Amino acid sequence: HSVRYQQYTALDSGIGAPDRSPRERAARERAYAACQEWLQNTGGRYESIAHLDDIGSRSNKHWFLLNDCTVTSRRPTPLLHSVSLFPFPTANHYGFALATHLQIRTDRLMTLLPLPPDCIALEELPPSECPQGVLMELLGSLQHPYIYPVLDLGFFPSDSHQYTSLVMPFNPRGSLKDLIYKSQWNEPWSRKYTRKSTCLPLSQVQRLGRQILEALLFLRERGIPSHGHLHSGNVILQNGVARLSGLENGLLGLNSRVNAVVWARSAPDIDNIDVICFGHLLFEMCAGYELTSPQPTPGHYQLDLERYPQVVDVLQMIFESPDGRYPTVEELVLCDIFRNIDLREMRGTCVPSFKHGLSSSTLSLLNAVRRRQGAILSGSYSEGSSPCTPPSTPRDRKTGCVLFV
C-alpha cells in the first residue's frame, strides 16, 4: 500500500486493542465479520485495507478503508507504427491495438452499521420493492458540487442484526470539524476533538457557509425532506469545497446527534430544522467550539464573535427575529455576508433535473420520511424512536477540555 496507509497494512479487527472494553472489542469483531461477508457478496469488486478507529460520534457505526477494483475495457485504438511479430494477422498487424481490460484501483471509505428496528426504508416499502434500489435511485441522482456522493449501498442480515453498508469516495482532508480542530481524519473521535480548536477566517466562513446553503437549496428544490443531521462532522471538505454528507441518515431513520435539534423542540415547522442547525454550525466555525445552548447569548456575541459582526447579524436573524419567525434558506443566501460569494464550482455544471422522474416507490419513501419527521417534531412519535440523542459532551471553549460527563 502507499505510504499514507503504512499504519493500516494489517487489517485490524480490534480484538487486541488494549484501550477497548470487551463489549467494544466484541462489537468490532462482529462488524469485521459482517464486512467480510459483504465484501464476498460484491464479487471481488472491493478489497479490505483497514478496519478504522471510531472516527465518528455514532457508537455503533464502523468505518473501513477499501480498494475499489473496478475493471474497465479500453477500445482498440489506432497505432502510428505497427510491427507484427506473429506469422498470422492480428489486430496489431492491421494497425490497431488490442482491446484490453484495465483494473483501476481507487480508495473508498465504507461505513457499516446495524439498522434501527423502525428503519423507514424497510418499514414503508412493500415487500416487492428492493430498498437498496429505491435508495440508490434517490441518492445516486443527487449529483451536485456541494453534495458528497454515495457510490454504493447494501442491506444484508448478519447474526442478529440487519446491517446497511455505504461506500463513499475516500477523502484524506476529512470534515469541517477536522479543519476547526486541526485533526487528522483517521484519529479516534473520542480524542481528536479534545485539543484546542481554531476560529476560521471570515472569508472561509463566508465561502463554506454559502456552499452549505447552496446544498440545502438543492435538496429543497428536489423535494428532499429536511436534512436534520447538519453539523460540522457531516460537511466533508474536498479541495477546499464544502460537500454535505449524511443524507442517508434521515432516509434510514437513524438518530441524530445535532445539538440544535435537541433544543429546538418548540420549532413550529419542520422546515426550520436545517436553518437552526446552520446557525449552530456558523457559530462553531467562528467561535471554534459547539454551541451548548439553544441559541447564542449576549456573552457569546461579545466574547467569541466580536471579530465577526456580519456573522452576529445572521445569527440574530436566525435566533432573535422580532416576530419569532425563522428565515428561509433563500433569505439567508441573500444576506450581505453570503450574497456575493463566487461559486466557481457551479460554472458549467449541469445539475440533473430528476424531480419528476423518480419512481412511485421513491416518492412514497420521501413522503414517509417527511411524515416521520413531522410526527417527531409534533411529539406524536414514540420517544424511543426519536432521531434526537443527547448533545455531545460540552467542552471548554478555550482549551477544549471536557467540562462534565
From TrEMBL:
Superkingdom field: Eukaryota
InterPro entries reported in the protein's UniProt record: Kinase-like_dom_sf
Record's protein name: Protein kinase domain-containing protein
Naturally occurring in which organism (per UniProt): Anopheles christyi
